[in-house]
Backbone:
C-alpha cells in the first residue's frame, strides 16, 4: 500500500456464469483518493465486477489487486481493508441505530477505545444523534442510506465500494450523499461507485463505461465528452414531442427523448438547424426553441452504445 | 474471532426477542405442546359409553353392570330393550361398547355351569376397542372368580398378577411429556436456525456480512450458539412444568440431561443449517422444516413403536436423532437410567451429530463462500 499510489488495479478480469460472460476481460486502474465512477445500464456487469473486487465472487480469469492484496488469494485481507455498501442498505431493520453500529463495529474489529468515537462520528455524519434508539426500519430512506454508509466505513477502510448507493433516495438526500463522498475523497479515501444516474457521473474524478461486460470508454467526464462527442447535440423544444421524433427519425436524424425535450445528434450544425425547422413546419408541428447544447454524459453514453 | 461471534450472538438474541412471532415460538410453543400432550392427547381409555342389554334382569346381572360402572372405565348410558336397538347405537357412534347378558345368566352361575356374556365393541378405532375389550374381560373374569370362590366347587386356577413397571398407573401422560421435551426443542431449534440464516439472505444482510472480516465458521457459530442456548432454556422450562404441574416423576438425578441435550442439539442444529442451505426464502425454510419434522416425529417411537414398523423403515429410523433422544428422556424421567444404560443411545446420537454437523457446515460454507 505504502509503495504504490494505486488503490485498485485489475487486468483481464473475467467472470463467466456457464456460457454467459458477465464481465469480459476488463482492465481498471484506480488511484488513491480518486472517486471512480463505474457506469452502465442494468445487467451490464457492474455488480459482478464490484463483487469480484470485494472478494464476494471469485473471478473466472484475470489478475488484480485491491489495496495491494491479490483478489484471487487474499480475499480475507481485502475484506479488512474495504467498506462495501449496496443499494439495499443492508442494515438490520429490527435493530436500533445504535445496535446496528455496535454490531458492525464488533464485526469489523474496531478497538474498544475507538468504538465510542466512531459511534459518535456515524451518528453525526448521518444526522441521527437524537434517533440513536430508533428502530432502523422507521427511518426515512436518506437516513438509512447514510447509516448504511457509516456502518460500512466504521473501521476507516482506505477503499470504499458503493454499489448504486443512491437508488431509491430523494434528490436532496442524493446531493447530501455526494457531498459526503467528496469529503471522504479529500481524506484520501478511494471511492469506487457504480450508478446508473448519469447526472451523478459528473461528480466523479474518473469514469469507466461498461456495456455488455466490456469497458467501452474510460476517462474524466470532460475527456469523455470531448473525445466521444465529435458530433453536435441540438436541443429541440416542441409540444408534440413524439410526432416530432417520428418525423425526424423518418428523415434519418438521430434523436432521443429527454423529458419533454428532444436531443438530436447531427454532424453538421449549420445545415441541420434549417432542415429540422423545415421538416417540422411541413408536418405542422410548432417549434418553440432549437439550440446547440453541451452534450451531457447521457448523450455520450447513448452515442457510445449506438456505436457498439 | 471471539468478539465477532459474541456480536453475532447478541444480535441474534435481540432479533429473536424483539420479534413477536419468534418470541411466541420460543416461549409459548413449548407450553402449548406440553398442555396438549399432558391433557388432550391421551391414549388412556376412560368413560367408555356403553349399552347394557340385560335379558336376565337379576341381581347378578345388575351386579355386573355396577362393577363395570364403578371401575371408572365404563359409563352405561343406554339400556336397550331389543338387539335391534343396539345396532343403531353403535352405527351412530353413541356407544363404543355394548354388553349383552343372556337369559339364564344368574341361574347358570348358581348351578356352576359356565355361561356367556357378549361384548361388542366398535372396532373402527382399533386401539380403543382392544383396550375396552381388555377392561371388560378383566372385570367380568374378576366377577366370575369372586362368585366362584363363594361356591365350594371352585377349582384351583392360575392366579394372574400383572404389574407395570416404571409407570404403575399406566398414565399416558407420564410417557408423553418427557417425549414432548425432545419434540419441542427439535421444532424450535430447527425453525430458529433455518429461518435466521435465510432471513439474512432475504433482506440482503448476508451479502453485507460476506464483505466483512466475518468468517463462514464464525457466522455458523453465531447462527447456532444462540439457538442452542434457547434450546437449553426450553428444556429447563418444559422440565419445570412437567415436574411441578404434571407431576411427572423424575427417577434419576437429571445430571446427564444437559450432556444428552447438548449431543442431541448437535444433530438438530446441523439439520437446521442444512435446511438453510436448501431454502431461499423463509417460507421455503418453514416448509422444509415441517417436511423433515413430521416424519421424524412419526418415525421416532414417540407415538407408534418402532418395532411395529416394516423392517426397511426401521432401518431408516437409525438416522433419526429423535429416536435416540426419546429413549434417553424417557429413561431419565421414568426409569431412572444413568449413563451406564443410556450410553448406546448417547454414542449413536454423538456420531450422528458429528456427521450431520460436518456435512451441513461443508455445504453451508460452500453456499455462502
Residues:
Amino acid at each position: 500500500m505504502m509503495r504504490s499510489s494505486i488503490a485498485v488495479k485489475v487486468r483481464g478480469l473475467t467472470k463467466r456464469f456457464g456460457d454467459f460472460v458477465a464481465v469480459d476481460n476488463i482492465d481498471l486502474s484506480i488511484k488513491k483518493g480518486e472517486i471512480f465512477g463505474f457506469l452502465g445500464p442494468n445487467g451490464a456487469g457492474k455488480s459482478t465486477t464490484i463483487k469480484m473486487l470485494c472478494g464476494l465472487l471469485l473471478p473466472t480469469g484475470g489478475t488484480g489487486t485491491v489495496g495491494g492484496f491479490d483478489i484471487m488469494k487474499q480475499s480475507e485481507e481485502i475484506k479488512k481493508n474495504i467498506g462495501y455498501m449496496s443499494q439495499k442498505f443492508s442494515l438490520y431493520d429490527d435493530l436500533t441505530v445504535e445496535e446496528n453500529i455496535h454490531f458492525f463495529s464488533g464485526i469489523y474489529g474496531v478497538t474498544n477505545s475507538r468504538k465510542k468515537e466512531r459511534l459518535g462520528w456515524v451518528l453525526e455524519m448521518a444526522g441521527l444523534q437524537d434517533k440513536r434508539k430508533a428502530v432502523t426500519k422507521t427511518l426515512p430512506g436518506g437516513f438509512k442510506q447514510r447509516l448504511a454508509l457509516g456502518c460500512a466505513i466504521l473501521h476507516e477502510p482506505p477503499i470504499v465500494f458503493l454499489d448504486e448507493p443512491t437508488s431509491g433516495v430523494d434528490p436532496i438526500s442524493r446531493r447530501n450523499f455526494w457531498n459526503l463522498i467528496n469529503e471522504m475523497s479529500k481524506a484520501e479515501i478511494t471511492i469506487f461507485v457504480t450508478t446508473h444516474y448519469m447526472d451523478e457521473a459528473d461528480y466523479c474524478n474518473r469514469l469507466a463505461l461498461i456495456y455488455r461486460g466490456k469497458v467501452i470508454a474510460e476517462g474524466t467526464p470532460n475527456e469523455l465528452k470531448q473525445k466521444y462527442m465529435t458530433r453536435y447535440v441540438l436541443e429541440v423544444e416542441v409540444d408534440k414531442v413524439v410526432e416530432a421524433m417520428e418525423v425526424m427519425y423518418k428523415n434519418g436524424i438521430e434523436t432521443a427523448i429527454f423529458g419533454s425535450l428532444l436531443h438530436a445528434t447531427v454532424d453538421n450544425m449549420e445545415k441541420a438547424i434549417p432542415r429540422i425547422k423545415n421538416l417540422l413546419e411541413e408536418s405542422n408541428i410548432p417549434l418553440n426553441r432549437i439550440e446547440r447544447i453541451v452534450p451531457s454524459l447521457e448523450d455520450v453514453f447513448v452515442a457510445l452504445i449506438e456505436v457498439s | 474471532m471471539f468478539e465477532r461471534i459474541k456480536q453475532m450472538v447478541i444480535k441474534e438474541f435481540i432479533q429473536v426477542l424483539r420479534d413477536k412471532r419468534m418470541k411466541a415460538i420460543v416461549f409459548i410453543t413449548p407450553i402449548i405442546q406440553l398442555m396438549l400432550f399432558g391433557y388432550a392427547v391421551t391414549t388412556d381409555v376412560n368413560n367408555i359409553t356403553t349399552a347394557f342389554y340385560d335379558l336376565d334382569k337379576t341381581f347378578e346381572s345388575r351386579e355386573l353392570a355396577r362393577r363395570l360402572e364403578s371401575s371408572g372405565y365404563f359409563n352405561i348410558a343406554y339400556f336397550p330393550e331389543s338387539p335391534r336397538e343396539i345396532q343403531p347405537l353403535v352405527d351412530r357412534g353413541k356407544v363404543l361398547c355394548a354388553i349383552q347378558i343372556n337369559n339364564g345368566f344368574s341361574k347358570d352361575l348358581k348351578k356352576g355351569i359356565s355361561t356367556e356374556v357378549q361384548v361388542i365393541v366398535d372396532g373402527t378405532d382399533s386401539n380403543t376397542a382392544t383396550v375396552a375389550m381388555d377392561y371388560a374381560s378383566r372385570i367380568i373374569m374378576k366377577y366370575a372368580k369372586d362368585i366362584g370362590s363363594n361356591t365350594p366347587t371352585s377349582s384351583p386356577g392360575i392366579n394372574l398378577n400383572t404389574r407395570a413397571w416404571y409407570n404403575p398407573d399406566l398414565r399416558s401422560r407420564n410417557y408423553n411429556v418427557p417425549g414432548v421435551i425432545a419434540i419441542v426443542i427439535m421444532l424450535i431449534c430447527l425453525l430458529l436456525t433455518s429461518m435466521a440464516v435465510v432471513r439474512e439472505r432475504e433482506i440482503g444482510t448476508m451479502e453485507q456480512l460476506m464483505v466483512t472480516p466475518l468468517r463462514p465458521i464464525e457466522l455458523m457459530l453465531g447462527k447456532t450458539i444462540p439457538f442452542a442456548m434457547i434450546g437449553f432454556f426450553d428444556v429447563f422450562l418444559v422440565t419445570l412444568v412437567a415436574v411441578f404441574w404434571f407431576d411427572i416423576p423424575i427417577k434419576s438425578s437429571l445430571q446427564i440431561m444437559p450432556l444428552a441435550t447438548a449431543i442431541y442439539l448437535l444433530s438438530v442444529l446441523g439439520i437446521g443449517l442444512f435446511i438453510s442451505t436448501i431454502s431461499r426464502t423463509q417460507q421455503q425454510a418453514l416448509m422444509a422444516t415441517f417436511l423433515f419434522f413430521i416424519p421424524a416425529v412419526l418415525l421416532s417411537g414417540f407415538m407408534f413403536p418402532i418395532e411395529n414398523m416394516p423392517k426397511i423403515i426401521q432401518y431408516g429410523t437409525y438416522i433419526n436423532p429423535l429416536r435416540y433422544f426419546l429413549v434417553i428422556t424417557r429413561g431419565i424421567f421414568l426409569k431412572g437410567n444413568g449413563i451406564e444404560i443410556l450410553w448406546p443411545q448417547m454414542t449413536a446420537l454423538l456420531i450422528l451429530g458429528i456427521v450431520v454437523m460436518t456435512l451441513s457446515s461443508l455445504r453451508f460454507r460452500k453456499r455462502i463462500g
User: Anything to note?
Assistant: Chain B has a mean pLDDT of 88. Chain B has 14 helices and four strands.
